[in-house]
Design goal:
- InterPro entries: DUF7344 (IPR055768).
- By secondary structure, this protein is mainly alpha-helical.
- It has one domain: Orthogonal Bundle (Arc Repressor Mutant, subunit A).
- The chain is about 60% helix and about 10% strand.
- It is built from 5 helices and 3 strands; from the N terminus they run H-H-E-H-H-E-E-H.
Length: about 110
């Protein structure tokens, strides 16, 4: 089969792969959960949410998590369509794909609350 050909069901497989890739890190699942629950949040609120979920208490943990969200996790979720991240304003909002994320994760064995 040539590299450009797709097999039946490959779009579905590609979608599942993209979902698992985007949700592979626990912080990304918690961000999606927070945005799905509360709507748009700024970076500091998202970092605080992750810190609470991790039960990490110090300010350096919040700063470190905020850096990871800003440079890694939010851009990855944005490119996958789960969030809309405005890096200049430092605000994330639910993306087009966020509504079905919880159901898909549940069906695939990944949970937002893990």
């Amino acid at each position: 089969m040539s590299p450009g050909c797709s097999t039946p069901g490959s779009a579905s497989t590609d979608e599942r792969t993209a979902l698992h890739d985007a949700m592979a890190h626990l912080h990304r699942r918690w961000v999606v959960d927070a945005l799905d629950t509360y709507g748009s949040l700024d970076l500091s609120a998202l970092a605080a949410h992750v810190v609470r979920r991790e039960e990490a208490a110090d300010a350096s943990a919040t700063d470190s998590i905020a850096v990871g969200l800003y440079h890694n996790h939010l851009p990855k979720l944005d490119s996958a369509g789960f969030v809309e991240f405005d890096a200049e304003e430092r605000v994330a909002a639910p993306g087009e794909r966020i509504e079905t994320t919880a159901a898909r994760l549940d069906a695939t064995g990944l949970a937002l609350s893990d």
